Please model this.
Amino acid sequence: MGFLDNQVALVTGGGRGLGRSIALALAARGASVAIDDVYRDEAGVSAADATVRAIEESGGTGLALSEDVTTVDGAAAMVEATVQKFGRLDMLVLCAGNTTRGRLHELDEAQWDSLMSLHLKGHFLACKMALPHMLAQNSGRIVTVGSRGAFFQVPANKQVPRDERQPPSAAYSAAKAGILGMTTTLAVELWETGITVNCLMPSASTQLFPDTKPRMVGGVPASNSLDPDDIAPTVEFLCGPDAADISGRIFFASGGDVILYGNQLDLAGSRMIRKDGRWTADELSQVLGPLAGL
Ligand SMILES: NC(=O)c1ccc[n+]([C@@H]2O[C@H](COP(=O)([O-])OP(=O)(O)OC[C@H]3O[C@@H](n4cnc5c(N)ncnc54)[C@H](O)[C@@H]3O)[C@@H](O)[C@H]2O)c1
Model:
């Protein structure tokens, strides 16, 4: 018996990488898990089917779906199929994702749109379709998936030698920053409904980020493990009974490291200057340069 017995999860992007690890972990806790993923290998084998097989081999219950999360029809079909099969929907974990390797000025409009569509529209549509079921139940857990790329690229990349830096993608960071904003404000929209929304920022070696290296970020030493299975316990916790009152928060997970970020509007770690009246640009040049470490 697990603490998610009789509960139902839907994990997008659950065919590979973090989504697969999370789906298996939730199933091991007793949840019935619907896995949505569009990927098929060269032999035509569906990644979602493979995850469901692994769940069933461990004695759990799964449902394989291959809907495109970026379309209204796909998102609706994925949620409806889950509710039809299992009767309810308690957890939504949004791991479907991708990135681009090019620098911003090298991307074309289609690449930009595709990234925004997968991350932002994908999160929006899945929540839009799932929330009516959760609101009717007065309960639910939503875990969005962001990235430290949303706000950490500059310090992170300056800490490692130029030729070892991970290629950043400004478009990916923009999409992930949108997910952070969506998470915190959606949590406020859902205050007192029994539904929580929290954002996971992972770091693990997957087919999407095979070259991920442990990186010291924000003064925190890097974890020495990049196993995707290390991420799942944070999501189990967020879906479990002890996290019922945690919402609108951002968690980093990698290896043995978990960071609960502070309130985003808290000035700890930031620098604020104030004067009575308006600053001039000359005055700011005198003050802000040194504050930025110049
Ligand atoms: N791995 C990391 O270190 C890391 C770091 C920060 C953020 N993330 C984020 O975590 C999430 C999972 O990443 P991952 O590393 O496990 O990648 P992954 O590529 O292993 O898994 C993502 C899955 O999403 C599926 N997918 C893509 N488009 C889809 C669509 N339109 N509909 C349904 N499924 C779709 C893919 O087929 C794939 O199996 C992504 O949002 C990624 O941006 C990962």
